[in-house]
Amino acid sequence: MARDKTVYTCRECGGQSPKWLGQCPHCKAWNTLDEGPAEPAAGAPRNRFQGLAAAQPVRALAEIEASEVDRRPTGLGELDRVLGGGIVEGGVVLIGGDPGIGKSTLLLQAVDALSADWPVLYVSGEESGAQVALRARRLGLVGTAVQVLAEIQLEKILATLEQMQPRFCVIDSIQTVFSDALSSAPGSVAQVRECAAQLTRAAKASGCAVVLVGHVTKEGALAGPRVLEHMVDTVLYFEGDTHSSFRLIRAIKNRFGAVNEIGVFAMTDKGLKGVSNPSAIFLSTQGEPVPGACVLVTLEGTRPLLVEIQALVDSGGPSPRRLSVGLDRDRLAMLLAVLHRHAGVACMDQDVFVNAVGGVRIAEPAADLAVLLAIQGSLRGKALPRGLIAFGEVGLAGEVRPAPRGQERLREAAKLGFTAAIVPQANVPRQPIEGLTVHGVERVEQAIELARSLG
Question: Keyword rRNA processing: yes or no (predicted)?
Fold first, then answer.
């Protein structure tokens, strides 16, 4: 079969060249030419996605009929939480993570659970069918209704989808798939973009839910073009250390649900199992309170989580270090300046190390108050009292700002047996929470003095 003609288009100016050049001949930009299919001949449809949807008349927004999308649970509660309730027909999900983190294992479990009611297809581009079957046996999966295709050519995959008409399909992985319409190697920017676009078109046209597995770079971002994240409906990231038994899966984009949801899994000999009480993972198992530790109630999507923040302050010499794991390093430097200016606690000649226990990454500013209390506890060498939690955002003027959904955070802490809380004054509940004493503060210096008096 003759290969379709391809052209190289400049990302900067849109100019085209019949072959790859290091420099665009039109705008003189370097390394901006990407391969793509050539425009069809005269008389042929110019848009390759013209058949995706019929032309619709212009209507007012209030006249358009809208209904909630139907969801199909995958059988894995934590995965359903991140997806917003389950798989959506015709939805395209992109899931990325480090090698060996558990992407293929999780999706094989989901495919096996969905195969009881739906026709499913597992397309493996990295492993043979025998390797996939061996993993299924190791995980204890039945797999009698799971159809497996070991193929990397896009046209054959699309033909199989059209013939089988599955309701759920996994492509593992999108970087291994190539199209005959392009001459570049699998995994290149042009191939990844073209294959993802064709699979997305097929999913929308047929109503088949498609999951694309994506590789990540050394920096942790999805390999290939950033446009891949814009083409799909949902983007999930696997997080966690491959040497640890716990995995986190986070949604950073979801057209059918909330973003920043988090699912927690434990890796066992029978695959990934959902963790019903993830707060137990992120809390230390110390028997007695230790200096430099403070428990934070953070929000991950709709779920409040209790995470222990640990700080170590030690003499650092002329060039002290500022290091944080799971927290923003620049924000740590800002908090140390606020602590010095407004609370009189100086760490200018000290090394400061801050860590979020359990490998979780905290991005919300409500962790500021817990970080400051942990730092002052380590500097004084005196532990905070047992059963104390804290949360609140700290501003440059030394004020303690309220955190969103403070009531839910306090109820979660009380449910897990915590007895005292240091929170912003605006987050103090009007009705007392049984078993929990709430102390409201408005300034950083008030919080530090309160922590010293409680300790």
Answer: no
